[in-house]
Amino acid sequence: MEAFLVSTGIVALAEIGDKTQLLALCLAARWRRPWPIVAGIFAATIVNHALAGAVGAWLASAVGPDAMRWILGLSFIAMAVWMLIPDKIDESCETPRGFGVFGATVIAFFLAEMGDKTQIATVALVAQFHAYASVVAGTTLGMMIANVPAVLLGDRLAHRLPVRLVHAVAALIFACLGVIALSGAVKL
């Protein structure tokens, strides 16, 4: 349960103001059809995070505990720093054409999530907790907690969130996870 709750919370916080949340806002503004967009976000996230979780599980089995402690500790600290750098959407809401709302959302979200903070966090969290299903379920739920309101409420919500504060809290959590991993307080 700990893996699920930590994964949900950290990804929900990390996703606030993230480029994929900005993409969700763009998709909602472009199509104004929230439910196919929400379904597309869910489908893309579950596949993306399942693959990231598989990488985390492989990494945990391929690397010894001492090396893993350093990799995870430094990765979480790097994530803490990365959380403090604001994201911007790379394109001006460009999405694949000819796939419909759902298909375009799946493709755009899957690609936007490649190498993103939440995907890297999923790899690290699975490697740390050794709980593939709990972490993937948690990170997926965290993505939905952050992105569904963005799709449903759009700009009205986006401009009222204290994004810097939310990112600072997420950075603090990542830093704490890094220090805990480096200290060896948690058996990996």
Automatic annotation (TrEMBL):
Membrane topology of this protein: Multi-pass membrane protein
What InterPro entries has UniProt attached to this entry? GDT1-like
Q: Which UniProt keywords apply?
A: Membrane, Transmembrane, Transmembrane helix
Q: What is its main location?
A: membrane
- May I ask which residue range the UniProt record assigns to the signal sequence? none
Question: Which residue ranges run through the membrane?
Answer: 37-61, 67-85, 97-112, 132-153, 165-186
Localization per Swiss-Prot or TrEMBL: Membrane
Pfam families, per the entry: GDT1 (PF01169)
The Swiss-Prot or TrEMBL record describes its family as follows: Belongs to the GDT1 family.
The name under which this protein is listed is GDT1 family protein
Which species is this UniProt entry from?
Answer: Pigmentiphaga soli
